[in-house]
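User: Can you predict the 3D structure for this chain?
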Amino acid sequence: MHTFTKDEWSLVRVHGRTDGTFPITFFYSGSAVECNVKAATLQITVNAVYDCFDQWLTILIDGAFISRQMLAKGEQTITVFRRMNPDKIKNVRIIKETEAIPEDSVHYLQILSLETDGEVCPVEKRPLSLEFVGDSITTGEGTYGAKGEEDWIPMFFSAYHNYAFLTAQALHADYRVISKGGWGIYCGWDNNVNNSIPRVYGKVCGMLTGLRHEAVGAQKDYDFAANPVDAVIFHLGTNDYSAFTQQPWTDPETGLVYRQTLLPDGTPESESKERFLAAAVAALRDIRRKNPQAYILWIYGMLGDGLEPMITEAVARYQEESRDERISYLPLPNTTDETVGSRYHPGYPSHRAAAKVLIEELQKIFSL
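Assistant: Here is the predicted structure, written as structure tokens:
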């Protein structure tokens, strides 16, 4: 067994937002290392850092699911495979299943080393690269666990068992994810205006604050120019709609009170609507500035479509001001009693249905 050398690490593909330094530090779900090895044995050493919410890892070999496991705190070596055919090249992907969790005082996963008894081979660069921006749906919350489970624990989250992975796999695309359950465009599900994905979009993982997260690169500006994508799939709005039915949120630092309000007929009152539209258009402008060549596809509808009129209005307003033709809106199939998963979130069947629609749309956009 030998540890991957610097030259061998250059053959490894890193998926997901990082600050580009070593050891590789992952924050978001779906982050992964991928390698091709011609060997009988492969091991990985990781450092799982968290205080409360455990982290999960999934291993794929040649695209097939092999294992899923909860990680203990601290450094640990995991055997990826053993006694396989040493003359055959195996494609291995090791995926961080758990979302970024600012509710934990510290939460990240480091890839410290890879060891093998064989040869490391290059991993091809795929012809298409995607970025998924979303909330708990994109995190894959509810895709594991029985219907009716309500515990908010990482065991029920999965970056592998969701529409983003299914879409990338079907299109033979590389992808990265920036998502957080409960967060939205203007505000989170509970009217908390700090829980806005666009607010942290420009950082490696801006939602993770504090000195320990800052020390491993979470607050660095993300290098979009060095990591361009062909499409940004923007999957937000579900929590913004939920905020209309929640109690006001008071900012503990300023004392200001925030609340999105519905009129008696169930439609958003004008000021609430305008707050959302302004935030949505600003988010689209920012995505375009940071991804000048990418197609922007706003998707929505897996947990109801109550915000659809406002989303389509936001896209139209942005297009009118920018004359940007590389953007569109795509409705997704709603989750049903048959396709719901745990935590009243879309289950794996719902993610498969959504992925089918999304795959077909991206095939049209890119003439695949």
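The longest helix spans residues 270-290. The chain has nine helices and 18 strands.
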